[in-house]
Amino acid sequence: MNFHLDHAASLPYFLEKTTFKGRVFMTHATKAIYKLFLSDYVKVSKVSVEDMLYDEQDILRFMDKIEVIDFHQTLEVNGIRFWCYTAGHVLGAAMFMVDIAGVRVLYTGDYSRKEDRHLRAAEILQFSPDICIIESTYGVQLHQPRKVREKRFTDVIHSTISQGGCVLIPDEYWSNHPELHNIPIYYASPLAKRCMAVYQTYINSMNERICNQFANSNPFDFKHISTLKSIENFNDVGPSVVMASPNGLQSGLSRQLFETWCSDKKNACVIPGYVVEGTLAKTIINEPKEVTLMNDFAQTSMFLKELMPPNIILVHGEANEMGKLKQKLITRFADRNTKIISPKNCQSVEMYFYSDKMAKTIGRLAENTPEVGETVSGLLVKKALTYQIMAPDDLHHKLKQIFKSVVSLPDEESEGPAFRVHERLTVKYELEKHISLHWRSDPISDMVLDFVVALVLNISREIPKVVVESEEATKTEEENNKKAEKVIHALLVSLFGDVKFGENGKLVISVDGNVAHLHKQSGNVESENEGLRESVRVAFQRIQNAVKPIPLSVS
């Protein structure tokens, strides 16, 4: 995962325009630069407002929903554990390891196993994942050594400048060639200038050389380079060097300079990065008779050889290149019985893994340690990817703590052990290891059902005691409203935890340092955290629909 738009440009649309309600995690540096990339993308896009997938306001709302994760920090969501490793490539880029019930899946995204001039190389893992989902952008093409590539690059630069042409060049080469110091270099990318501030903020993420250099001087202070804000400020006389964006030459200053310079053979256009189909830069690369592409099958095969995953899924590449890479990897790992898949876009991939599952005994079953080989019998409760076993009688006891009316039913009436909760819900034991719930749907019965289901799924936790009184306990509307408020408050406590009474009849709800103020009469919610505000509003609305009005008698 990294901030480049070919990986993450659709995220704002995904979160703001679809029904997806999950969570999004990024490293700190990726989130910082990603916002700059999105804003720049919206500004330079040459489509009508109606055709835009999202606008600046969508981006601002979306960025508030992104959560950050540190490298090697383990997080868990709904029983799924995940953490990330340094990927090299660009600042903040991460490879994510996802652990689902003991099956470990590594998603590499773009990565680099070679340390470059400022970033560390991608980490090598201490264990093999069960599945490796790996990028295949360049297929089986090979990188030339960095020094060879840089020499070819700078030879073209030097030759072009000597002819009076205009081109792009790196800062270090310029410093070592005084004869070129009278040639102006321009930095024509406001986006890159803003991103440079982020790079300087995360110096500790750089390689050892940059960290050591930063102790004495700023490695990102390029003394030979001047900023060029627009083409109107550019004095296009004589040879010069301009670093301009976007790299696809589809619009902006880079496109303007290309159109100005392309008719003169003494000029050169150097495209240093990957470009996508449909851009002018891709057309330029495809048109010449000879183009040397430099890439990383050697890195890919060596990385997979060190990981030794039994399953490899190729993604993020063109079909032909992915096909070539697949065949090359099949040959390379023929002696390992490695499964290699290159799915098409939107194609599902199913894999089956079999492993032992562990269940934690709770309640009375946990009081005595069973002997080796002894069978433990009880109700198996599954929550997310964890399992617990409880004694059937514990469920009956817990329900009595919450509801006043929990009555055991005769075997002849229920055809087996069962009990009735609040005269609305029947809980039956099936085959001693399963339970079934039976009820007739209405607001009150549905609420009782929700409590019982929540109790079973959270049986090892302390549940707040809530008493739902019989319908004949009160007659007046005022008393009914008081009972409803108690139930509403108890349900909000069960959902959010810290719920207190505030001023003017408001409820103050605190979750992870965020605070929401709920107006009980109007249902309006005030909170600086949009996610919490919406969660409280929806929960309160649904609870009100369930408990008001409370019927006075059972129909």
Can you walk me through this structure?
- The chain is an alpha/beta fold.
- Helices cover 34% and strands 19% of the residues.
- The chain contains 17 helices and 24 strands.
- The strands form six sheets. The chain has a seven-stranded mixed beta sheet, covered by helices on one side. Strands 8-11-9-10 form a four-stranded parallel beta sheet, sandwiched between helices.
- Strand 4 and strand 5 form a beta hairpin.
- Helix 3 (28-44) packs antiparallel against helix 7.
- The longest helix has 20 residues, at 477-496.
- The chain is elongated.
- The two termini are 57 Å apart.
Reconstruct the topology from this structure.
Blueprint: H1 5-8, H2 11-17, E1 24-26, H3 28-44, H4 56-65, E2 66-68, E3 75-77, E4 80-86, E5 94-100, E6 103-107, E7 131-135, H5 146-162, E8 166-167, H6 171-175, E9 185-188, H7 190-201, H8 208-214, E10 225-227, E11 240-244, H9 252-261, H10 280-286, H11 297-307, E12 311-315, H12 319-332, E13 339-341, E14 359-361, E15 379-383, E16 386-390, H13 392-402, E17 406-409, H14 411-414, E18 418-421, E19 425-430, E20 434-439, H15 443-457, H16 477-496, E21 498-501, E22 506-511, E23 514-519, E24 525-526, H17 530-547
Helix pairs in contact: 2-4, 3-7, 16-17
